[in-house]
Amino acid sequence: MAGFREAVLATGGAGGWSGHSGNAPTPFDAVDGARLAGPDGSHPLAAVSIEEMVAPASAALDGRITIENGDAIRIGEGITGRIALTARKNISARGATLRLVGALISEHSQSREDRDSEGRVTNREEWIEVHGKLFEESAFSDTPLPAMLSAGQQFEATFTIPAPRLGPVSAHMGSAMIAWAVEARWDISMGGDERLATPVTVRQNIDYLRSGAVRLEAGAMFDAWTDGDGTIAVKPLPPITAGTEIEVSVTWPSAGSGRGGRFELQANVDAPHGIKGIVLASQAVDPAAFRGGTTFRVVIPADAPPTIVDQGVSVNYRLRALVDRSFRSDLAIERALAVM
After folding, report:
1. 218: closest CA among 336, 126, 334?
2. Are 261 and 255 in contact (CB under 8 A)?
3. What is the pTM of this model?
4. What is the distance between the alpha carbons of residues 315 and 296, in angstroms, rounded to a whole number?
5. What domains sit in the chain, N to C, each tagged with a CATH number?
C-alpha cells in the first residue's frame, strides 16, 4: 500500500528543474526555492516534509528548541519544551519573543504567454510554484528571552505555551500543508532577525471533532452508512487514526454484473492545486461478492493527513465499491470516512 504522499507523487511526479522557484515565509524557508517548483501537473510539495521546511537556527545562534510532549499535542491543550542556545556573536535586539506560528503553504498553477507584435500567442508556458503565508503569530511573554546577548553567552529556559485553541491541525496534504512551529525570535533593528525554531505537530482533539465544530461530510463519523440499497460499515467506529487497520463490510444487493468489481479507499484534496480521487488502497472483487456481502481490511496510511476543512483547504476520505460495466458507466456506492 502506498503512503499518502507517495500516492500524490504517483499522480504527477515530484517536479524538479523547471526554471522557476517557489518560496515560503520564515521560519518555513529552509528548502531551496528550486525544489518548490516543477512542470505543470507535478507536485513538488509532496516531495518535501514539514520538518524539512523549518529552518532550525539563524546564523548568529547555535542551539535548539526541544518539544517534550511532541506526540501528545492536541488542539486546545498545551506545548511544553526547552530552549537552549549559545550566541555566535553579539546580538542587540529591540526585543525577543517566544512565538507559536502557523503557515499555509500550497502549490499554485502559473502560466506565461509570449506574443508577437500582432498579439498572437507564440509560446505558452505552464508550471507549478509553491508559496505560503503565515496565518497565526502568537507571542508569549511568560518565557522571557534576553534581548541582548554577547558572543559566547549561553541561555536556557523551559516553557509551556497553549496549543492552538481551535486549530487547525497540522496536515501535509500533498499539494498543500498546514504547518506549525515554535519560534524564538530576536527583533533586530535595521537588520535581519535572529531565530531558533522547531516544527510542532498539532493533532486533532477527538472531543473537538465530535463537538461538530469541524465541518464533516455526511456519515463520516458513523459506523454504517447507506447509499441506495447498499451499506458500507466500518470497524472501529470513526474517526480513524492514521496508521490504523480498519474492517469494512460492504453489502450491496443491487450490484450488477460487469467485467469486475473493486473496493477503494480514496482521498480528495481541495486546495489551489487540488487533487481528486487519490487512490490509497484498491482491492479487486467479483461483483457477486458485493451482492451477498463481503468484508475488506484496509490500513489507513500512517502519513495520511487528518480530515480537515480550514484556511481555504480541505482533505476528505471516501470508501467506494464499484462495478466496472462494459460500454456503460461504472456502478458505485460510497461513504465518507473521518480520519485523525
Report:
1. 336
2. yes
3. 0.93
4. 23
5. 4-203 (2.60.40.640), 209-337 (2.60.40.1930)
